[in-house]
Design goal:
Length: 225
């Protein structure tokens, strides 16, 4: 590596966890309150990644448009329903817990960098027992702008006291890769997450097919692409 690795940053939905079933269920419960038809898993998957407000807006637009003049009330209703149930069926991807434990043993700082709301993020990490692995969690409300804005990544680097060249971002979407690259951070993409299109097109420095492959890939990363 061009600089010794000190920290690994992780996206949450689609990267650390398979949360899509709970998101689909919450979206369809919301739509049902407005007598809208349910959306398929693939349809909701294509809407995930840009924050809860974007998800709510896209779900309504796909089924006839926003029922009222402002998204606020619908977003609040969605979050009130989703947040306490955000880990009903959500699970870590295979290899996540073992890999996080190994990275901690190696002395690396670990952080979550997610566009998910803070309450849902805390609920999921706690219920799945993943919270113990992380030095820092920066959710949607904890940064001046969410991914793909590099400010999201820079908040983490600043709070950890780590330079961009000493960090790697692991994600599954273009937002993860763009935010990391703009912040000068190297990137690893997952081939099995929620990317909206071919993972090879994301422009990550490396792509892995299983979460546990991360241990082997990290020592071989060069400068950011």
């Amino acid at each position: 590596m061009s600089q010794a690795l000190r920290a690994v940053l992780f996206d949450l939905d689609g990267t650390l966890i398979h949360s899509l079933p709970d998101l689909v269920a919450a979206v369809n419960r919301m739509l049902a309150t407005e007598a809208r038809p349910p959306l398929t898993s693939d349809a909701v998957k294509a809407m995930v990644g840009d924050g809860a407000d974007a998800l709510v807006s896209r779900a309504f637009e796909a089924t006839g448009g926003l029922p009222g003049p402002e998204i606020g009330p619908y977003l609040e209703r969605f979050l009130a329903d989703y947040e306490p149930r955000s880990a009903d069926t959500t699970l870590p991807w295979p290899g996540v817990e073992e890999t996080l434990s190994r990275l901690r043993e190696l002395g690396l700082a670990l952080a979550v960098c997610t566009n998910k709301p803070r309450a849902a993020t805390a609920e999921v990490l706690s219920k799945l027992g993943l919270d113990v692995h992380f030095d820092l969690v920066v959710a949607a409300e904890d940064a001046p702008a969410i991914k793909p804005d590099p400010a999201h990544v820079r908040v983490i680097l600043d709070r950890l006291g780590i330079e961009a060249g000493a960090a790697v971002m692991v994600g599954d979407s273009i937002n993860d890769i763009l935010s990391a690259k703009a912040a000068g951070v190297r990137t690893v993409a997952l081939s099995f997450g929620y990317a909206h299109g071919p993972v090879a097109d994301l422009g990550a420095d490396r792509v892995i097919d299983h979460f546990s492959d991360l241990i082997c890939v990290l020592p071989n990363l060069g400068k950011p692409a």
